[in-house]
Design goal:
The protein is mainly beta. The protein is 4% helix and 55% strand. The two termini are 16 Å apart.
Length: 143
């Protein structure tokens, strides 16, 4: 299932190699407005970004920064307190960096300049896996 998430980076969980693949794992808080009163709700999305592009992004991605994330959503299962939990995860194909958080000073907020990589590189995916449909080149045992 295709997924698009637009919001602010909440936490960066991992920025490391998992076997021969680089994984950048982070959360995004997306505000949604529900009902007639347009009640604001915050939805949290876990995002996993694999490959060279993810490795390069670690220099630029910051907590609080606005991002638009595009990819495939899938259901993940994990154990918590002996109970199997499920959550949606977005396998990132592309990401657009937005404004960074502003710092507050006595004179008021000071906007920060957005850093853009000096040269944009095309997104690269890990080499094809040997099993599993729709795994986008990441071996099943890494999910």
């Amino acid at each position: 299932m295709r997924g698009t998430v637009s919001g602010n980076v909440g936490k960066i969980y991992k920025a490391e190699f998992v076997r021969d693949f680089f994984l950048l794992s982070f959360s995004v808080a997306e505000s949604v407005y529900m009902g007639q009163n347009k009640e604001k709700l915050t939805c949290w999305h876990k995002c996993d970004y694999w490959g060279k592009a993810a490795e390069g992004l670690t220099k630029y991605l910051e907590v609080g920064q606005h991002v638009d994330v595009f990819g495939q959503a899938y259901l993940s299962e994990y154990e918590k307190d002996g109970v199997t939990q499920k959550s949606m995860v977005v396998k990132v194909n592309d990401i657009v960096l937005g404004h960074k958080p502003t710092s507050v000073s006595p004179g008021g907020p000071q906007p920060q300049q957005s850093q853009v990589p000096p040269t944009a590189q095309p997104l690269q995916q890990p080499p094809p896996a040997t099993s599993g449909p729709g795994n986008m080149g990441v071996p099943d045992n890494l999910w």
